[in-house]
Amino acid sequence: MHDVPPHAPASPDPATFHRWVDDYGPALFRLALSLSGNRLDAEDLCQETFAAAFRGFKSFDGRAAIKTWLTSILIRRAAKLWHKERHTRRTLSLDRPAPDDAPRQNPGGFLDEQLSTAPTTTAVDQRLDLFEVIRTLAPDFREALLLREIQGLSYQEIADVLQIPRGTVESRLHRGRAELRKKLTDYE
Q: Would 56 be classed as within a structural domain?
């Protein structure tokens, strides 16, 4: 299942690597989208994950499954992105006047041009709301929940990805689900 011979070369052969992208790319993208919140960042995270895996293949010892190894790389990359952008995130004030150079052709005003107002279905809205609430969870809880519920990893695989004991995974999932239920109740 690991697709790695006992004495692996410094990098995987192209056919094996392409199979990994095909086999694990969609699940990694869903996780990246859940962690980053937007498609462009998710695509970048996946691309960086596979590039790092290709460069770092010689350090892969085969003790974990390829899926677990790739997921741990993605989690580390997402954490770096989150911490790096934490200082540069900005919000739009609803009371903020439009800058002098903002386009004026939209009668709805500057904020209409900055915010998406496309109609969506109730199910999509609810899913987006759920992901917004999940993003407010503490990072430890959020990571564990996304790995379990989005990636479908087992408790042991989550422990391997996050490099923590299995009992800690169980605790984070229990506490994360409790916090999520409370936030969803408060949200409604």
A: yes
pLDDT digits (tens, 9 = 90+) for 18-49: 898 999 999 999 888 888 878 888 899 999 99
User: For every residue of 117-148, which 3-state class applies, written as one string?
Assistant: CCCCCHHHHHHHHHHHHHHCCCHHHHHHHHHH
Asked if 127 and 56 sit in the same domain, the reply is no
**Domain membership flag for residue 1:** no
Please tell me what DSSP assigns to residue 164.
S
The DSSP string of 19-76 is HHHHHHHHHHHHHHHHHHSSHHHHHHHHHHHHHHHHHTGGG--SSS-HHHHHHHHHHH
- Is residue 82 one of the residues assigned to a domain? yes
Question: What's this model's pTM, rounded to 2 decimal places?
Answer: 0.55
